């Protein structure tokens, strides 16, 4: 799947900024910046990874800047960034 660079989210409290970029390397490279990474970092990365894999994205560089987002917000922002990066609308019937 061809990707272009895309972003979704904000740096407001309770949100997460997701930046997706194409890469030549195999797999998902997820870089997380979060003040709660030591507690929830694995969970945040897992939600991002599961969301991208569910959308068919298997190769990407992802930078996530978390400001206390809940899992549902992380999924929504990751999905929005993926739609922008691929041009495919996952909400169509």
Name some characteristics of this structure.
single chain, 93 residues, alpha+beta, four-stranded mixed sheet, 24% strand, globular
How far is it from the N-terminal to the C-terminal residue, by CA?
20 Å
**Beta-strand content estimate:** 15-25%
Rg of Cα set? 12 Å
Number of helices: 2
- Based on Cα principal axes, name the global outline: globular
Give the class from helix and strand content and strand pairing. alpha+beta
Instruction: Compute the number of strand runs.
Output: 4
Quaternary status: single chain
Reported for the largest beta sheet, the result is: 4 strands, mixed
Account of the protein in words:
- Helices cover about 35% and strands about 25% of the residues.
- The model has no long low-confidence stretch (mean pLDDT about 95).
- α1 (about 35-55) crosses α2 (about 70-85).
- It is globular.
- The longest helix has 18 residues, at about 35-55.
- The protein has two helices and four strands, in the order βββαβα.
- It is an alpha+beta fold and about 90 residues long.
- Strands 1-2-4-3 form a four-stranded mixed β-sheet, with helices on one face.
């Amino acid at each position: 799947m061809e990707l272009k660079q895309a972003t979704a989210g904000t740096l407001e409290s309770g949100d997460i900024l997701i930046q997706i970029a194409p890469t030549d390397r195999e797999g998902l490279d997820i870089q997380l910046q979060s003040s709660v990474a030591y507690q929830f970092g694995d969970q945040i990365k897992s939600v991002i990874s599961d969301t991208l894999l569910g959308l068919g994205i298997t190769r990407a560089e992802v930078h996530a800047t978390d400001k206390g987002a809940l899992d549902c917000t992380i999924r929504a922002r990751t999905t929005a960034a993926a739609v922008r990066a691929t041009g495919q609308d996952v909400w169509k019937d």
